[in-house]
Amino acid sequence: MGGDGDDASVPGNTNSLPLPGAPVLAQPTVGALTDDAYPVTFSWSRAANATGYTLCRKDESQDDNCAKQGEPTTNTSLNLPLSLDTTADYFVLASNSTGKTASNEIAVSIPKPEMPVLATPQVGAFNVSSSSYPVTFSWDSAEYATHYTLCREDGSEDDNCQFLQQTEANNTSLTVNLNLDEPANYFVLASNGTGKTASVKQALSPAPGATNFSIGVGELENGYHPVTFNWEEADHATGYTLCRKNEALDDNCEKLGETNELSLTLSLGPLKNHLAEFFVLAENSTDKTASVAKSLERSDLTTLITYIKASNSEEDDYFAYSLSMSSDGNTVAVGAYQEDSSSREINSGESNNSASSAGAVYVYRFANGSWTQQAYIKALNADAGDRFGHSVSVSGDGNTLVVGAYGESSKATTINGDGNNNEAGYSGAAYVYRFDGSSWTQQAIIKASNADPGDSFGLVVSVSGDGNTLAVGAPFERSINTDESNNDSNSVGAAYVYRFENDKWTQQDYIKASNAGYRDFFGYALSVSGDGNTLAVGAKEEDSDADLTDPTGVTDSGAVYVYRSDGSNWSEEAYIKASNAESEDNFGWSVSVSEDGNTLAVAAYFEDSGSQGFNTDGSGTSVINSGAVYVYRLENENDEWSQQAYIKASNTGLYDYFGYALSVSGDGNALAVGARGEGSDATSINGDGDNDNAGDAGAVYIY
């Protein structure tokens, strides 16, 4: 063992050597504890006339007061593992044949521990039975520490330490139960035989007190009514979270905002919040305490309604004849298919009225707390009578818009063909627009591959959630089978599916009913799923009976067809009839498919039964044109569609046309149904609908 010092010179005549000079022992260096010992390095200067050196621990019971440490060496350094369990003095004896000379003495002990770094304590859930919180304290290992003591600061105790718990050096965390009934500082003492070193203190406080809060709706400002939540300061709170109550989330809290202040101002819509409860979480490092929950007043909800009119509103424009909202609720497209401007640009030419019923679409965005008009959209080949905007559909992210113009009259039969002629009246078209983050541009004008006058291609459109699958209905198309070129029967109807791939739109399929027939109006309604792989198509005047034994037995009863795509090909998965099919019910007048394509809602708005509510008796025709809705699910066990519900209004009435419009939620668990002919004079939500004092007032039902 030893360092790398040079060997001592040995004179030729050792019997005449003088005593060695005194070596100078430097301050030893102590390394980290390894295998229960500290590596200690001793170094000294070379002594004149010395032929060797011995490292000694001072011990007056030994010769030369030297308890030898290691073997004698001719080097000038030595590394030894020492326990250092007590402080001791060390020196070096320089020797030769004449005698020995001792160096200076240096006391060696374990260095004082380094400072431990105490992390923020982690406070667990309050334990009711012990009236305490489990608190975990963790720290970084401190060099030279042999044990740690967890302390609550107390100036009356040694080292300001009210003892909580102690652990050996190989453990760097402790969990203790604390009442936390008053603010206190906590720290860790790293200790060894030499001394103690305290960590930086961490403060813990009692759980915050509950706060009182209020809700106020302000005056119209920058296009919206600000909703301000104010609360009082809570004892011991270091921050606050404003929550909308949602029992499915941690702390029942859907976070609306976090702040150190005593108020937050937000923009809120009435629909999501009409039954919502709001509360404030007062927080600190110990816990969270919720305030009492409160709701918006009914008058506040009415104030929060956003009322939108066209920027060039005029009589008979039919603004809002069609509309579509993105999945996040922040983009709305509104069609006005009888708007009369002749403009062929986006965001230009609103003021003229030289192209009767050319049609327009308006796009609105919700940002920074308010709704603003983002675009006024016209077809690039706009002409009188095109009825652009009769149908609209927005993708889930709000960045793709599809517009139907069933009156468009060009003879083009391709995508982005020549639309600047009017040689095929009412052949129809669909237009695709994309938003690039700053502006809307027309990406494609889509025509049926077999466009003919009167087909009304674009009467309905539906785009997938990602905006890359598009379905278009042409309910007046006249082909009787999959031969696109024949026109053998009026108003048979067809549906067309397009995909956006490789930066372009292409037609993927031309879809006909498996039992296509005269005046079935297949394609009068359609809906594509969010993933773009399920398509439901309504044929509102299909004529077969409910058990399919007679293809013409129930005139205009209606049917719905469900198609699935494997990514490249579409196939018919189901042919669905109402369980109580009757003549002229128009089952398939409107359809809606869930995001995953496994829930389907279908309306028969001329259905005549007098029942009310869920799954009641659908027989009878006593309440003419009251309307009904049917909900179907795809059962994955057997891959078959089954009827889940037969739904009537809660206040079924004559000529209510329940089901004139409908929409199923993305998850398939909620349904909205419109009844344009409902005639009660009730106002707002859940009013008295048991009268007919306001004919054709209309109503919406949410299930």
TrEMBL record:
<dbReference type="InterPro" id="IPR028994">
    <property type="entry name" value="Integrin_alpha_N"/>
</dbReference>
<protein>
    <submittedName>
        <fullName>Uncharacterized protein</fullName>
    </submittedName>
</protein>
<feature type="region of interest" description="Disordered">
    <location>
        <begin position="1"/>
        <end position="22"/>
    </location>
</feature>
<dbReference type="InterPro" id="IPR013517">
    <property type="entry name" value="FG-GAP"/>
</dbReference>
<dbReference type="InterPro" id="IPR011043">
    <property type="entry name" value="Gal_Oxase/kelch_b-propeller"/>
</dbReference>
<dbReference type="InterPro" id="IPR013783">
    <property type="entry name" value="Ig-like_fold"/>
</dbReference>
<dbReference type="InterPro" id="IPR036116">
    <property type="entry name" value="FN3_sf"/>
</dbReference>
<dbReference type="Pfam" id="PF14312">
    <property type="entry name" value="FG-GAP_2"/>
</dbReference>
<dbReference type="InterPro" id="IPR013519">
    <property type="entry name" value="Int_alpha_beta-p"/>
</dbReference>
<keyword id="KW-0732">Signal</keyword>
<keyword id="KW-0677">Repeat</keyword>
<keyword id="KW-0325">Glycoprotein</keyword>
